[in-house]
Amino acid sequence: MIDEIDRRLKEWITMVIDGQLAITFEHPGTERNQPTVSVYLYDMEYSTPNSTTREIPFQISLSYLLTVQSDDQVESHKYLGKILYAAKSQSDMEVGFPALPAQFWQAIGIAPLPHFSLQIPLMITRETEHIPTIKAQPHIGISSVTQITGVVVGPSDQPIPGAKIMLPHSKTVAYTNNKGLFSIAADANLQRAFNCKIDAKGKQFSISVPMQQILKTPHAPFTIHLDLEV
């Protein structure tokens, strides 16, 4: 990853300057007892990769700040120029001249130094997940559903509004309106009875209505009588 870029960059700079100076990845201004090239990674940002492969690339741009520190300023300028000239001919790095604010130099405790930057791309790739091709004919199952309509009433056939109707083994729920009417989707293959639970007036009732009773008047709501005060 980044350490591999560091290693390659150090080897390249060593070759350019014929190994005449020490190389460090610490920020400029770090005390040294010999002339030193500082290759300081000061910024990283996402960059858009150019890729036509089936891999998904993630690319960032690594920005290194290059300075040379020596008691002999002419020597510093000489080696900084050699690295700059060599970098311009490299296709895998881009030279920049960032205008660093005064606060940067104050933070590292030294006067501003001649410098330039190298932007080097780092690409991380991972293969896209293989999605197998569906070769078999898809099977679509259709469940048979019917709409059942009823009315919930109490004593004297008074409608009970706001009652909650729940089907067993299902999340299907319906509520009665102000006339006690409700409509709920149920399995059309019910053979014997329509079973449900009803919450009304703080009480719960288990109801079972024979399907024959419901089918007698298929276009009219069937009636559920609850033994409670309205």
What does this structure look like?
This is Carboxypeptidase regulatory-like domain-containing protein. InterPro entries: CarboxyPept-like_regulatory. By secondary structure, the protein is α+β, with helices and mostly antiparallel strands. It has 2 domains: 2-124, STM4215-like (2-Layer Sandwich), CATH 3.30.2000; 145-225, Immunoglobulin-like. The protein is 19% helix and 38% strand. It is built from 4 helices and 12 strands; from the N terminus they run αβββαβαβββββββαβ. It has helices at 2-16, 73-87, 102-108, 211-216; strands spanning 22-24, 36-47, 55-69, 94-96, 116-127, 145-153, 164-166, 173-175, 181-187, 193-200, 203-210, 222-225. The chain has a 5-stranded mixed β-sheet with strand order 1-2-3-5-4. The protein has a 4-stranded antiparallel β-sheet with strand order 8-7-10-11. A 3-stranded mixed β-sheet has the order 9-6-12, with no helix packed on it. β7 and β8 form a beta hairpin. The mean pLDDT is 85.
